[in-house]
Amino acid sequence: MDFHSYFCCLRGFDRKQNKKKQSTWRIFSLKELHSATNNFNYDNKLGEGGFGSVYWGQLWDGSQIAVKRLKVWSNKAEMEFAVEVEILARVRHKNLLSLRGYCAEGQERLIVYDYMPNLSLLSHLHGQHSAECLLDWNRRMTIAIGSAEGIVEIADPKLNGNYSADEMKRVSLVGLICARNQPDKRPTILEVVELLKGESKEKVDALENDDMFCGKHDYNDGVSVADDSCDSISVEKAQKEEIEKVVGI
């Protein structure tokens, strides 16, 4: 099934479920996005990940957008694109990027988001804004505690321990792998869904044995090396151990 057929089905489902709700996203033309991003000019480039590059843009009404452009079209990329659009179209939260729309013309696949003027958390911790130190210690602690509370919330005490420790561990590991330093090593939306479902034991085992959790470090220059020192423990590995303590593994 191609994207248009797949997404038409989703839109039909949404209409049945949300007749009284008005969509906040729309379909963009490729011409419109070319104009908004100055023909995807390099100076407008915000970053790059496994899916493709992200560009800053400005629409005719002055509103700012971020446009993610598919790097190489393939059947797998088509499905990942459809899944991501579906999820973003359904989910609304103050801490999540809002979907503005999408474009699917020929083999061009683009997703349009609201633009974040303050950029990402990663950019403030390790990227271009890290030297400015806008996130003081109190703010960083608030972020860390909030993240930990999110994990605890999943295994609410009201459940009286009636939850799967293996599933809790898997959810936590997927969350960590999605936030790794190297964007090209993060899983796609489709891969995240597959990992959370745990349908493939091989993929789950590969996740648990990922370099991120096995004493290897991901550096900003893209070089990953093994640390043989017993005195040096990676932050990611320490996080995994803390998670295992929380879920009682």
Automatic annotation (TrEMBL):
Annotated residues for binding of ATP: 68
GO molecular function, one term: ATP binding
Record-linked SUPFAM superfamilies: Protein kinase-like (PK-like) (SSF56112)
Domain of life: Eukaryota
Residue intervals of the Protein kinase domain: 40-249
Designated name of the protein: Protein kinase, ATP binding site-containing protein
The keyword Secreted appears for this protein: no
InterPro entries from the UniProt entry: Kinase-like_dom_sf, Prot_kinase_dom, Protein_kinase_ATP_BS, Ser-Thr/Tyr_kinase_cat_dom
Species of origin: Cynara cardunculus var. scolymus
Keywords: ATP-binding, Kinase, Nucleotide-binding, Serine/threonine-protein kinase, Transferase
Pfam families registered for this protein in UniProt: PK_Tyr_Ser-Thr
PROSITE patterns noted in UniProt: PROTEIN_KINASE_ATP, PROTEIN_KINASE_DOM
